[in-house]
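Thread: Modeling a multi-component assembly for a lab meeting

Hi all, long-time lurker, first post. My supervisor asked me to bring a structural picture of a complex we are working on to next week's group meeting, and I have zero experience with this. I have the sequence lines for every component (271 residues in total). Could someone generate the structure of the whole assembly? Inputs are pasted exactly as I received them:
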Amino acid sequence: MPELPEVEVTRRSFVDAISGARVLMVQLGKTLRWPLGCEPAILADRVVTGVRRRGKYLLLDLDKGMLLLHLGMSGSLRFTPAPEPMGPHDHFDLLTSAGVLRLNDPRRFGAVVYAASPSEPVVQRLLGKLGMEPLSDDFHQDVFVTGLRASRAAVKQVLLNGRLVVGVGNIYASEALFLAGIRPTTMAARIGPERAKKLYEAIRQVLELAVQRGGSTLRNFSSADGSVGHFQSEAHVYGREGIPCRVCGTAVRMVRQGQRSSFFCPRCQRA
DNA sequence: CAGTGGGCCTGAGTGC
DNA sequence: TGCACTCAGGCCCACT
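Re: Modeling a multi-component assembly
Sure thing. I ran the full set together rather than chain by chain. Output:
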C-alpha cells in the first residue's frame, strides 16, 4: 500500500507525540513477514528518541537499539492515547508512556524488526541496498541519469526496484513517468539525458505534492492520527484506464509489467 | 552481475 | 447466496 509519501506522512503524524516516551510493554498479534527478532520484554523501559524514514521503512530509534517498521501493502500505524483490545489484523502494539503505537496490517506483508544497533546484519540486509532518497540532498541528478543509462530494464521497473531511488511505488512511478512524458515500458538505457533529467524532476515533484496532500488513500490508508490522504483525486493516470487524459483527452491505457499494472497516456507519453 | 517470476497473505470486487 | 477467480499501494529470494 504505502509508498514514500504515505510513510512520510505517517511518520510526521506521530513523531512529535512519541518522541521522549518510555516503552511500557509490547504486545504481538500474528507474525508478520519476519519475527520481531527479540524478546518483547527487553524493550520495556527503553525510550523512543525519534522516528526516521529510509525509503518505505520507518526507523523507530530507541535510547538503546531500534525498531524497523514496514507497512507492506496493507499496513497502517495508529498512535492513540489509550490501549484498546487488539483486533484480528492488529499485529504489534507498542505501549508507551505517551500512548499506544499500533500496526494494523490485514495482509501481513509488513514487518517490525528489532536491531540492537545499526551495524546489525539485519539492518544491512534490509536497508543496505537501498538507493537515493528522492526528497533529500542525497538525490543527485547526475547519479540518477547515469543509473538509468546503465539499466536495460523497463524504466518503470527500474523506478520500482529501489536500487537507484527509493520510495517510488506503483502509483507514483506511473505518475512521475506521466509528468516526464515517458512510457513505463521504455528501456531505461534508451532515455536521453534531457528526458532523464525531466524524470528526475518529476519524481521530486510528484512525491512532494503527494506528501503535501497527505498521501493517497485508495482503500483504507490513514496516518497515525487517523487522517486520510487526498492525492489520488489528482492522479493523472494511475487507476484511470479508459478515462480521458486530464491534459489531452486521450484515453489512458493500462499495461502489465511484472505482475503490476502501469498506466500511461499514449499521446502525452510518446516514447 | 542484472533481470525476471513466484510467492508471501487477506479482503474486495466481479461474473457465473 | 455461493463459488471461482482476479486484483490490490511491496519486497525477498531462487532462478536464468
